[in-house]
Amino acid sequence: MKKIILTLVMSYFVVFSLAQEGVTFQVEELSKPEKALDVKAYEEIYEELILKDYELRKWDVKDRKLKVQYDILAKSNAPDSLVSFGYHSFFNGMYTAYADHRPFVLSPDMMWLLISQGFARHIDSEPEKYRKYFVDFKGKTSLVVLSETDLLHETNPTRWEAVLNKFDSQMAKHTGKEIVDLLTANFSTTGITEKVASQINIMKAMEPYFEFVVLYIACGIPEITLQGTTEDWKKVLDKAQKLKKYDLAWWIDEIEPLLKEFINASEGKVNKKFWRNMFKYHTKKQYGAPKVIDGWIVKFFPYDKDGKRNNLKSLNGTSSLPEEIVKVDVKYIQTGNGQTTETILELWSGFLGLKQDPKTFALTPQISWMIRKKDVNDSFLLQKIKSDNDSYKIQLRVDEVPEILKELKEINKLDLYFNKRVSIPEWLKNIPIKELSIYGDISQQEKEKILKWFDASTIISINRESYKNGKSIDGIRIVP
């Protein structure tokens, strides 16, 4: 039977001159981990995540001689190296702590960021349904923040922190201060990084209603540490309860009793049975199904990566988890000397990796944010697509078919995995394609349209059923 440990200690930290209390408590005795986990450089983690968006790894770039412009403008302060689990460092970090008997550290900021990310995904699932709670206009309104310096050449995070902070007051003019104050992290553990990360998450939640513009005129876990005070954890509960009115009672009701256990533990009243079940239940039956995760932490992930509600009881592996990093577009306008230039930026915010204690090997999720120039012309994607087309085949997971494919004169093999309903644009039929494989929910009308569009020169596979010249091909099955 796998077990978890927790040791009761009081620890004190300082954030912005405010006393910050913490408590470490013991659940069970377990063997200590044998060695530290591998770490990666802070900058390298962001670079790997950017490549992951293109379904590439660093060795792919080197092997295929691709030219990558990461265009990272600024990022929050963080340790030089972190344990990294890609887009799921919080969840998989906890999983690793559980499996290897490593202590784990939690803070009000971390749990509130998870709740806030869930709230943002909830709003994004049906933005028009919830529009009435926040704004009284249709479409999107531009929120414009003035910058006194040229931020495209500014790596100092404090400059960006000051600018991003201004969007709060801009949004509050339309939404009211209540929702902005509610979603903003304001605990004794909250540093500038945690606050800015929460502010970017607010921007993500309100993205269906606002365009963000920056204008520059220049011319199994052995040990848990809960950071913060009991009042902090009570504040997390209170803030979460205030989200109920946004059609979220179905979720908040589930996490309320969990947050109360955080309060109890911060007071020294540790429910060991509760903390043992943070990640999976301690039953032999469940250990026989290692891919099923049913600990209470799954309740903090209300939506999957496709925007569908999770059942809040269990997860079949981690492949359906939403990313723990949100991204928001910002339009940066520079005007002066009779010229105006516009640059699209991308704000990232969330859990980037995990700090690792060199002595105890305890893991602490690292909240971070970053700003980069967005590749609006998809120049790197075009590089990758051309390379894929020359070497084997193009594989894309999409909401809609990217128009960058128009740049290709012909396509050897094209695999399209649709996150939403399958929809093939008419312009695609004008590109010679040898093999076209389509995966996803598709209507009979869309299927018939596709089969009419492509002649005998194209072999079509729709959810692994093959066709040529509009007719089914017996004995041929396209396997990805």
UniProtKB/TrEMBL annotation:
Keywords: Signal. Pfam families: DUF4419. The keyword ATP-binding does not apply. Residues 1-19 form the signal peptide. PANTHER family: DUF4419 DOMAIN-CONTAINING PROTEIN. This is DUF4419 domain-containing protein.
